[in-house]
Every structure is written in structure tokens, then in C-alpha cells.
Specification:
14 helices; alpha/beta; 304 residues; 8 strands; 52% helix
């Protein structure tokens, strides 16, 4: 199958490698042409310098998979593609898009006869080796012809991917997936911090992680990755305690509020990420000041 791939970041480039390895022909575009050119030399993709060239290189009905940052960048690419594509062509968004943006884009493209499919994609830097988890949204007639692509990118032809619903459903499921991920990561982080702080036992945190990886009910791929990180440096001395969020956790919390669904673990995990970005917490300072005011409790002075 021939496919246009737009965006060759780490995930996009690895997807191209997996597709080529699976026998697909990939026409690759990246804003920095040298990236596409290097991938052409490495695996034989067809590197192009512009989206019109990509559209011209694909046979009808054309398929383009967009892997660029969610929001304005994705909107700009899809808008340009919509002027180049014809009725019956398909645009796939595999980024971390907000599902309501999918619904808006699909409606606009439908007026031109262009199909739109949203694919929540998970797997990160490990996707090339392990395969990608693909959560797919869109009309059945748009999704069905793409099956060979999904079977190649997934961990196995019959595992790790599925058509979960109409337009936006794929990214909605991926959004909830990432919200759950926030909660799991936070639980591991808190547990290991308690272990590290119990100095009486001088726990080997890597050893504990390795024990839990086998037979334990808390074993998971996240724990495997945690064990790998701890094997390199248990004190994490080269890593700042600053944790960004890419949006899906926030969207998950907003949806929980809109739907009147309690989601305290995911919500608190998101809030912990906010806390990690503060050099100093004004709220904590004010708490200390209040305790001093009503109870005369001692406050810790700032060292200068």
C-alpha cells in the first residue's frame, strides 16, 4: 500500500521504518527536508520537499497520515492537504488531537468528499520494536481500506488495534488512555519515594522494581521502564523534577467534570504535575503563615 507520511519526529520516523519493513511504499514529508532525505537514504522512503509534491506522488485514492503537533500545526497541514486532495482521498491524524477538533475537521472535509480518520497512537520510542497501540475513529467505509496499515503498525495483525467508533472516538479513547497513564505513573512515583525515604532499610530501588516485575499484581510495562531508569541511576541525579503535560490529562479531567464522573486519581495526578513545575509554592508559604498566625507554630525561614 502507498501512503504519505507527514511529520518525521521520533514516532513518525519509526512508523515509516515499520511501514517500509512491512512492504508499504512511504512518501515522506518533513518541514526540515534533510530529515526526510536521511530517512530516504536509510530505508528507501520517497522524500519530498512540499505537500503538493507528496499529493502528486500518491496514486488515487490517496492516503496521508499526519504526525505533527496537535492544534495549529495539524490544522495548517490538513487545510493545505484538503486543497490538494480529491473526493475519495483520506487524511489520517495520528497525533494527540482533541477529539472535538476531529469532529470539526471531518465535517469540513466531508463537504469536499475527503475522508477523515483519527488514530490515537501509543507506543512512543518503543513502537518500532514492539508495535503501536492504535485506537481508531471514523466512518467504517473510511477505516476499512486502511486495515493493511493498521495491521503493519500494530504489535500483531490481530492485536493492539481496533476501530472504536465514529469520528473523534479514536482520540477520545487515547485521551482516557493517557489520563490513566498519569494516575499509574503517579502511584509508582509516590511508592518509590516512600521506599527511598525509609532510610532504615536502605532499599535498593532497582532490586525492588525487578522483584515486582515478575508475579506481582503491580507488574506492567511502566514498571519495566521504571526498573530500567533505576538501573542507571537510583538518585536520578541528572533529571530535574519538572513534569510537563501534553494536554490529554487536562482534557480527561474536563470530560470527567462535564460527564459528572468522579476521577480523583487522574485529577490529582495532573495537579501533581503542576506542582512539579513550581520552584517555590506560594500556597505552601501561605499555609505556613496561617499556622503561625492561629497557633503560633514556628515557620521555617528562607535561607539567604
Amino acid at each position: 500500500m502507498q501512503i504519505g507520511l507527514i511529520g518525521l519526529g521520533k514516532m513518525g520516523a519509526n512508523m515509516a521504518r515499520r511501514l517500509v519493513r512491512g512492504g508499504h511504499h512511504v512518501v515522506a514529508f518533513n518541514r526540515n527536508f534533510s530529515v526526510a532525505e536521511a530517512l530516504q537514504a536509510e530505508i528507501g522512503v520517497q522524500a519530498v520537499r512540499a505537500l503538493p509534491e507528496l499529493a502528486a506522488a500518491l496514486p488515487a485514492p490517496r492516503v496521508a497520515w499526519v504526525m505533527v503537533p496537535a492544534g495549529a500545526a495539524t490544522d495548517a497541514v490538513i487545510e493545505e492537504l484538503s486543497a490538494l486532495f480529491a473526493p475519495g482521498d483520506t487524511i489520517i491524524d495520528g497525533g494527540n488531537t482533541f477529539y472535538k477538533d476531529d469532529i470539526r475537521r471531518a465535517a469540513a472535509l466531508k463537504e469536499k468528499g475527503i475522508r477523515y480518520v483519527d488514530v490515537g497512537t501509543s507506543g512512543g520510542v518503543w513502537g518500532l520494536k514492539e508495535g503501536y497501540s492504535l485506537m481508531i475513529g471514523g466512518d467504517p467505509e473510511a477505516v476499512a481500506p486502511l486495515r493493511p496499515l493498521f495491521e503493519t503498525l500494530a504489535p500483531a495483525p490481530d492485536k493492539g488495534w481496533g476501530h472504536v467508533g465514529g469520528v473523534g472516538a479514536g482520540h477520545f479513547v487515547k485521551m482516557i488512555h493517557n489520563g490513566i497513564e498519569y494516575g499509574l505513573m503517579q502511584a509508582y512515583a509516590e511508592g518509590f519515594e516512600i521506599l527511598r525515604t525509609k532510610r532504615d532499610y536502605a532499599f535498593d530501588l532497582h532490586q525492588v522494581a525487578e522483584i515486582w516485575r515478575y508475579g506481582s499484581v503491580v507488574r506492567s510495562w511502566l514498571l519495566d521502564l521504571t526498573a530500567n531508569a533505576l538501573s542507571q541511576d537510583q538518585e536520578l541525579s541528572e533529571i530535574a523534577g519538572y513534569v510537563p503535560d501534553s494536554g490529554e490529562g487536562r482534557w480527561t479531567v474536563f470530560e470527567a467534570v462535564d460527564l459528572d464522573v468522579p476521577a480523583p486519581v487522574i485529577t490529582l495526578a495532573l495537579q501533581q504535575r503542576f506542582i512539579s513545575r513550581q520552584e517555590e509554592s506560594y500556597a505552601a508559604k501561605l499555609l505556613a503563615a496561617m499556622r503561625n498566625q492561629f497557633g503560633g507554630h514556628e515557620v521555617k525561614k528562607v535561607e539567604r
